[in-house]
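User: quick one, sequence for these tokens?
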């Protein structure tokens, strides 16, 4: 395009401003015919001096905010606030204060004037133009105009973007309001404050960016792939379960600038505390072992078993990578034993004395009902628990159960598998052993765990071949 310069330097605020105006002009000229009579006026309007003068006039139509009223109701008219998060009180709860100095301010007002805010977001030397002008940076002032008085006048108008409007604090019939009791007498109207909730738009944008990175970011993509394949990974895998609230319909810019950048999408977390539910059916009633039915019926256990058998049925090569993947799946199954035993700790100690658990193997009663040791009349049970011959029996039961699950899928692990499954569970570094050590500390038992294996256990292992 012959009307425009062909080279632009981005090394200063002035160059950044010129490039910004050039880009805006180009997008508009592309829509005109080469001989359109409007071209000269359009080019003149997008020169730095005239455009900045017009921007200084139009900036009054918009306001920088961190807490906005528009998301409460798009037709509400009232107060919006710009409060730097670092100046807010620090709380234990998640709030805008957690953003510190790293936050994105939003803009509300006339959508036709949002281009002024885009100008102020231009960055040079690690700072935005708005930050530089607020700090009275000399290079930013010179970028506005060669005339110091004109530059100062333009600067004062532009930084007014973050200043509260002179009309003062106000609400609106479409805004939400809440009477909050500040005293002790709910019948005394004087003991109430009227609160006007606002949308924490800067915090909402930070949440949006975090979730977008978790969904589409390269680092989490690699972690997700490793999790899916059961492969080792040094990073952290992030996953969020959210709802999406659409704001602004087909015109999200009418709500705010950041809402427009999110295409109207706002993520919502559940606002309820977690509710932990342990059903009575979780107790292993009327079974000789949890491995008979209870443990294998857990959804997470079934899912892990399915992944393990599917991998083994693919006939993987007998190498280190294959062994590592199998070990990871066995670790996950062993972890499920830790989780299951931890859930049963929420029941009062001594539940295994009920007649419904008469058939349950003694070593599993010792494992799953350790708090029974704390009952004064259970000295004999506590003595057997401290003797610690039962962990090896639990390890054998786990190994036999796993071999049986693989055999059902025509996968024969044999004696080597039995030894490996048992070794994984009883390994010193495994969470199951760590859980046992924590229980021994709670029950004032010696920390040493001698995983004894009796002749009877060996016989059971041979029977399971």
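Assistant:
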């Amino acid at each position: 395009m012959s009307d425009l310069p062909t080279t632009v330097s981005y090394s200063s605020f002035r160059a950044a401003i010129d490039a910004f105006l050039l880009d805006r002009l180009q997008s508009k000229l592309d829509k005109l015919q080469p001989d359109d009579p409007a071209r000269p006026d359009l080019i003149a309007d997008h020169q730095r001096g005239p455009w900045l003068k017009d921007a200084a006039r139009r900036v009054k139509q918009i306001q920088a905010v961190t807490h906005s009223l528009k998301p409460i109701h798009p037709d509400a008219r009232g107060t919006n606030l710009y409060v730097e998060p670092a100046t807010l009180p620090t709380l234990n709860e998640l709030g805008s204060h957690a953003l510190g100095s790293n936050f994105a301010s939003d803009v509300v007002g006339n959508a036709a004037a949002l281009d002024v805010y885009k100008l102020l977001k231009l960055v040079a030397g690690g700072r935005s133009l708005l930050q530089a002008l607020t700090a009275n940076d000399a290079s930013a002032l010179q970028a506005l105009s060669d005339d110091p008085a004109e530059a100062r006048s333009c600067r004062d108008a532009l930084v007014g973007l973050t200043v509260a409007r002179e009309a003062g604090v106000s609400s609106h019939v479409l805004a939400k309001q809440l009477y909050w009791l500040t005293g002790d007498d709910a019948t005394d109207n004087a003991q109430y404050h009227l609160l006007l909730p606002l949308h924490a738009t800067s915090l909402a944008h930070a949440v949006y960016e975090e979730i977008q990175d978790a969904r589409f970011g390269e680092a989490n993509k690699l972690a997700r792939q490793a999790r899916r394949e059961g492969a080792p990974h040094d990073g952290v895998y992030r996953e969020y379960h959210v709802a999406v609230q659409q704001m602004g319909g087909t015109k999200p810019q009418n709500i705010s600038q950041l809402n427009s950048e999110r295409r109207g999408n706002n993520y919502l977390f559940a606002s309820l505390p977690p509710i932990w539910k342990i059903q009575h059916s979780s107790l292993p009633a009327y079974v000789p072992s949890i491995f008979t039915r209870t443990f294998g019926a857990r959804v997470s256990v079934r899912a892990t078993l399915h992944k393990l058998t599917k991998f083994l049925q693919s006939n993987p090569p007998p190498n280190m990578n294959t062994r590592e993947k199998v070990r990871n799946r066995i670790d996950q199954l062993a972890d499920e034993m830790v989780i299951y035993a931890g859930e049963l700790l929420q029941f009062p100690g001594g539940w295994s004395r009920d007649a419904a658990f008469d058939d349950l193997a003694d070593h599993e009663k010792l494992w799953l009902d350790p708090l029974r040791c704390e009952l004064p009349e259970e000295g004999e049970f506590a003595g057997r628990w401290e003797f610690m011959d039962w962990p090896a029996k639990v390890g054998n039961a786990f190994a036999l159960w796993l071999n049986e699950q693989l055999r059902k899928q025509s996968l024969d692990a044999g004696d080597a598998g039995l030894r490996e499954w048992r070794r994984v569970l009883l390994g010193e570094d495994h969470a199951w052993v760590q859980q046992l050590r924590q229980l021994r500390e709670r029950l004032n038992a010696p920390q040493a765990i001698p995983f004894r294996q009796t002749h009877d256990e060996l016989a059971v292992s041979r029977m399971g071949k």
